[in-house]
């Protein structure tokens, strides 16, 4: 059995999220079906393991998964074969032969998310599946001051939706940025950290745009850490604007640059 590591992108609009669900079209179910068809539907079926879940409507620029395949196929041939069978809203960009102990989820050392927020006064029907919308004026400098409060290790209890399956709400954000894309009239946020919980990025963006519009104090994030109350963070911005941009593994993670021996990667 050869283990393969695949990097792929998808438009999340017509998916009910990443994780397999009964009677629903999910990223996991579509990819699993194609891989098993390539392997001539073996018994037991091939199982894929993703780096993590994305919710319904969330997109990925570089999701990662691994699986064990019963035939030895060159990595590039595997990529071409998968893409010839995948639907138009999914595309494999890279396939690598992985070590037997590589795990797409448990070996993750960091993730980077992107959020696009359209600033137009009217909702653009051609962007509705790919951006959130915030039609109120924002002060970018206020947002940047607030972003500094997000970096570092914190208890993000106030920024996690109910239903999160985690034992601790402590996470570390290494980098948080925002800029205005003048060409597309969008606020563009990026967050890079050691992990993110259910709806965390979407809740953080909701707080940040309120700070930028002056409806919250600039350093209100510090208060939210203390109160540990999801209700006080208020809004969750739409899933359509969220993109999984990159998944980092040890040896390629800027925050954990130590290179592992080849057999441990």
From TrEMBL:
Keyword terms, alphabetized: Isomerase, tRNA processing
Catalytic reaction equation(s): uridine(38/39/40) in tRNA = pseudouridine(38/39/40) in tRNA
Enzyme Commission identifier(s): 5.4.99.12
Key word Transmembrane present: no
GO molecular function, one term: tRNA pseudouridine(38-40) synthase activity
Residues covered by the Pseudouridine synthase I TruA alpha/beta domain: 9-107, 146-249
Pfam families reported in the protein's UniProt record: PseudoU_synth_1
Enzyme class: isomerase
Enzyme active site: 55 (nucleophile)
Keyword Nucleotide-binding attributed: no
Chain coiled-coil ranges: none
Binding-site residues for substrate, renumbered to this chain: 113
Free-text function comment from the UniProt entry: Formation of pseudouridine at positions 38, 39 and 40 in the anticodon stem and loop of transfer RNAs.
Family membership: Belongs to the tRNA pseudouridine synthase TruA family.
Self-association and partners: Homodimer.
Protein's recorded name: tRNA pseudouridine synthase A
